Amino acid sequence: MVAPGPIVLVPGTPIGKVAGQIPFESPKGERGVAALGPTLDAGIGLVAVAPFVAAMLAPFIHRFAGAFAGWILAIVPASIFVFLLGFADPVIHGHAVSSALEWVAAYGLNLSFHIDGLSLIFALTISGVGTLIILYSGAYLAGHPHQGRFLGFMLAFMGAMLGLVLADSLLSLFLFWELTSVTSFLLIGFDHARQAARRGAIQALVITNIGGMFLLAGAILVHQLTGTWEMSALRGMGDVLRDNGLYLLVLICFLGAAFTKSAQFPLHFWLPNAMEAPTPVSAFLHSATMVQAGVYLLARMTPVLGGTDVWTNVLVIFGGVTLIWGALGSLKQTDLKQILAQTTIASLGLLVLLIGLGSPYAISGMVVYFVAHAFYKAGLFMVAGAIDHEAGTREITALRGLADKMPVTFIGAALAALSMIGLPLTIGYFAKEEMYLGLMSGQWTAILVLAVLVLGNAMLAGVAMLVMIRPFLGEAVPTPKSPHEAPIAMLAGPIVLGAAGIVTGILPDWLGHDVLVPGASAILGQAVESHLTLALDVTSPLLWLSALTWGLGILVYRQADTIRTVLRRFDNALGWTADTVFDAVMFSLIRFAGAVTRFLHHGQLEFYLVVVFAAMALALFGPMLAWGGLDWIVPAAELGDWSQRLVPPSLEIYEWGILGLAVLGLAAVLVASSRLIAILSLGVQGTAVALIFLLFGAPDLAFTQLMVEILSVVILTFVMTRLRLDQRDHRPFEDWSRDGALAAVCGLGVSLLLMLVLNGTLNTRLSDFFTATSVPIAHGHNIVNVILVDYRGFDTLGEIAVVMGAGMAILALLRRQKKTMEGPPPATDKPKRARKPGKVTP
């Protein structure tokens, strides 16, 4: 843990320069910042750890608490929300709080966390919405046999996202980034009995993991170019990355990560299929968690990578296309969850577009719109789940008149939809005003982007009207279940979040000062001013643009059925989508893998050995021939001086005897008249090698070799008992010559390589390192054991795993062969007689 320093007076310290400090005012009126204590620093990391601990306990809590498990587990995200509120004051005053825990000190790797305006807004949204989602999940899945497991998955999902937005190190970010993919896979595929759920989970995992590899590559490139993993340090380096020749490659890596995670066109298709998850997952996934990770990454890297033409053009183009595509996609759907899923794609495109514009107005609109979207999208998804839960269907064409039977649900839907439409006195209104305000320059590019925003917002407003009006108003129609009001735990989310969208909308000063300014300033790296106000200027073009948006939204609502028909006809005429392309690619990949497997793993063990030893011969002689490793054998100046080279070694008589025993065992294997003699002769040869190790000061190798030989002989004999051991395998001459030549070449290659190594200069750096560090670092006096357990720990673990796997495979084969030889019991029509007590049946 990074220890905090003493209290220091640092007036006006800019964002990103204060680690573990908060502003204070002394009794004398002096203002500055004070270092936080160790407990508060440690708490930043615990914010990401606490949900994982709760996730492990969730099944046990559900087992004992039953229906109240959701209420109990919701205490965890609620406590995190309250704890994070304690950082609001220093962040609002423009300061950041950081902490770090040593991870791999030798390489300078830390699990570092950083709280500024951007990360705090995301973390508060995740924990706040997450509290309501956990409550909702407890009621939505009441009575489900695996509800405890589901709640555990949800809490782990929350912890992964909290860790992602609080991480300062790029490696920490990557760690939590991948955890969001894994936990979302578990949640989307929760109902694993359905093929659609399994497919949606695999598709999300494949696409987002591709983005994870992009992120890892980008993080490594950034570290190589700047020498730091910390994003807070990168923000203070100015144009170091933008001026580098590898800037474009770094940008591609981070854009690839963000576009896959935040479902940008054409990588958007996995998100609608994620709707196979239970509704609480959809509400959390689409409002404040994984799909917002890419948006967060782009916002976080704006001071480092943003501001260039390629950054602006790529983000604005892809964001704009994604906005329009998602909005049109929502109008094609009739399932409430699919409608909302497509609007999420549109909203993600809108956020990416605003980040690409990069102006203070656009970034301010992005911050406010993120909060507004989290409020209304989570609320509307919970409304959709309540309708499905209580009415038995989500089809908007089969729902009417639910307001009488579900009035509280209708109020929650109306509050959320008003914010989605962007009407005055809602937070959505200010988000829309901010994004329009930055495009009033009159340039044709600004006008084009403004038209895209107006059209996209109008379609989203029309969809909001559909979700608010169609299921609830009008004459009631029969539904699969008799509709009635949902439990209070399912109503709390829509009401609280809908009310939050209104309350923040009627408090523009608070919204601007405490949300917009800290968030936008953290993204841009410079101070941003708020100008949010409730005053309406009828002469302002902004009001007329808003009126145009609402008017077009009403038109979209009234013509929704016609638009849906036209769009579906277009889809049918096109005949394929990005989703079908993904399926084609995956099936082609599976077929290719099958063909490669059949080609390489054809079951001919003899051919496997030929390939392995041929590759071994190539690996031995290739480098020696390429790099002149054989020149020492026949030097040009000593071509005839072989008499000095063929001097026999000086050995004792018993050493000659053991060497002769090894040669004798080898010869016995070659001329063995039966399989049994060949096995025993192989054991003799191996035992002689073990004795050579023992004589030359390697008792551990001798013991290992001896054990291997004993086990080899025993296992081979045991396996071969299923065959005739008194026979000899007949081998054609071509097989004998091929295998003999390979054996001779490999043996010669190993011998020449060993002689080459022994004739070279001995480099003792590695052995010196082991000797010097064995005791102080690994705390072991036996260097060989230390090498095996510590320095080659993963290698040793792999060897153990291979031996265990081979043993299990042999055991399985033996049992299967035994059952095959015994065969099924003979069929008989006679009833079995009861066995008398105490009588043993032979």
TrEMBL record:
Domain (NADH-Ubiquinone oxidoreductase (complex I) chain 5 N-terminal) ranges: 106-150
Domain named MrpA C-terminal/MbhD: residues: 661-724
Biased composition (Basic residues): 832-842
Disordered: annotated span: 820-842
Protein topology in the membrane: Multi-pass membrane protein
Species this chain originates from: Devosia salina
Superkingdom as given in the UniProt entry: Bacteria
Gene3D superfamilies: NADH-ubiquinone/plastoquinone oxidoreductase chain 6, subunit NuoJ (1.20.120.1200)
TM helices/strands, residue ranges: 42-61, 68-88, 120-143, 150-167, 202-225, 245-267, 310-328, 340-361, 367-387, 408-431, 443-467, 488-507, 542-560, 607-633, 653-671, 676-696, 702-720, 741-762, 796-814
Record-given protein name: Monovalent cation/H+ antiporter subunit A
Keyword set includes Transmembrane helix: yes
Keywords (A to Z) from UniProt: Antiport, Cell membrane, Ion transport, Membrane, Transmembrane, Transmembrane helix, Transport
Domain NADH:quinone oxidoreductase/Mrp antiporter transmembrane: 167-452
Entry keyword Signal: no
Subcellular compartments: Cell membrane; Membrane
Pfam families: MbhD (PF13244), MbhE (PF20501), Proton_antipo_M (PF00361), Proton_antipo_N (PF00662)
Positions of the MrpA C-terminal/MbhE domain: 738-822
